[in-house]
Design goal:
15 helices, alpha/beta, about 40% helix, single chain, five-stranded mixed β-sheet, about 375 residues
């Protein structure tokens, strides 16, 4: 054949016998083929069938299998970000006229999605406090709640939900449950009887701040329609991102363990500092702590705390930190700091901020992999300058 043709159709590299790469390659091919259409037709329902990367990609499929196994579920659907995972999980389970139940204390983009975007599509919503069990029961009693969205630890204030109550009411009123489990990670809450786990893989799973991804995890029957929506939305991730997240997962347990232990040391320091009025991190005094420790034995590297200062003084505190970097993400190797009201409460009115316990002096930090002593020293010097 002509050299121009050979460049397009080169001879494939093959391996001899059991010789194989130790690290799986990144499958960047958009298209997949078979030797015959008959073979393709026969294999089309096989789990290992690949036709077009938007529908299914080998690198991304490996990521899905790994995450589903960590969360003790049958399968998973990976997406391009945590928010695209949330969109796919929600859209697959509601229609116009249905009601969604969510909470003031939840992640701001999730609140805005339901209150500002889904309401335009005729989806109703009820928003209450995750800490007010009577309000939760009253919301379900409306009778038309089709979907409840909540977090294993709320962002940014780390309140613990009453899983027993929410799951019991969801079953009673035939509502689907979506649990954003990002803060507690892929290895916690394994026995909770929720319909869908959603994670931002950008955070603890990847752990290095260089790839975005999301995932919905659940039983195969529940996820069939979710996958259809993710594919239709074009929300499936690039295989390069899937590879980077898979690589990050290799150190996932090491990172989560160190970040959790360092966070506990920082909590102890902050709790005894005269300029810190309150620390938010799971502990024995926390509401629903008994439920948390049934399903988790580590609580991650996110800490929030209150300073009795103005917003301007809070910004100065953040600027005076040398190791903590001002940024909105979490779960990576770098320690981060975020003013809570500015980063997570801009969509809330004054009375809603009060319900969510976010004040002008509330700050959230994400603990990275730096020296514990260095991080405490950095916080100490910034607090001393207040």
């Amino acid at each position: 054949m002509d050299k121009k043709t050979n460049l397009i159709h080169p001879k494939r590299v093959t391996f001899s016998g059991s010789n194989r790469p130790l690290i799986d390659p990144i499958y960047r091919s958009v298209k997949y083929t078979f030797d015959s259409l008959e073979e393709a037709s026969a294999d089309s329902h096989n789990d290992n069938f690949f036709e077009y990367s938007r529908d299914k990609n080998p690198t991304t499929f490996q990521l899905e299998k790994s995450c589903a196994e960590l969360q003790n579920r049958e399968c998973a659907v990976a997406t391009s970000s945590g928010m695209s995972a949330m969109w796919a999980a929600i859209l697959a389970n509601i229609q116009s006229g249905d009601r969604v139940l969510l909470f003031y204390e939840s992640y701001a983009p999730t609140r805005k999605m339901v209150r500002q975007k889904l309401s335009r599509l005729g989806v109703k919503f009820s928003i209450v406090s995750i800490q007010n069990e009577a309000e939760i029961e009253n919301a379900f009693a409306l009778g038309d709640v089709k979907l409840v969205i909540y977090e294993s630890l709320t962002n940014p204030m780390l309140f613990i939900p009453n899983h027993d109550l929410i799951i019991k009411l969801a079953k009673k009123y035939h509502s689907k449950t979506i649990l954003d489990n990002t803060f507690l990670g892929l290895h916690n809450n394994l026995e909770l009887e929720v319909d869908f786990f959603v994670h931002s893989l950008t955070k603890y799973a990847n752990g290095h701040g260089d790839a975005m991804g999301g995932i919905i995890i659940g039983d195969k029957e529940n996820l069939n329609q979710v996958r259809d929506y993710a594919v239709s939305l074009g929300a499936t991730p690039d295989p390069e991102a899937s590879y980077l997240i898979l690589r990050g997962l290799k150190t996932y347990f090491v990172r989560y363990d160190i970040q959790s232990r360092t966070a506990q040391s920082i909590v102890n320091f902050l709790s005894n500092h005269k300029k810190v009025s309150k620390v938010y991190y799971p502990g024995k005094e926390s509401q629903n702590f008994d439920q948390l420790i049934r399903h988790a034995n580590q609580f991650g590297g996110i800490i929030s705390f209150d300073l009795d200062v103005s917003e301007k003084e809070l910004f100065k505190f953040c600027d005076n930190l040398n190791i903590f970097t001002t940024a909105a993400s979490l779960g990576s190797v770098e320690s981060l700091v975020s003013p809570a009201k500015l980063f997570f409460g801009k969509d809330l009115k004054a009375e809603e901020l009060a319900i969510a316990s976010i004040g002008s002096g509330t700050v959230r930090i994400s603990v990275g992999m730096e020296s514990e002593d260095d991080l405490i020293s950095d916080l100490s010097q910034a607090l001393d300058q207040l």
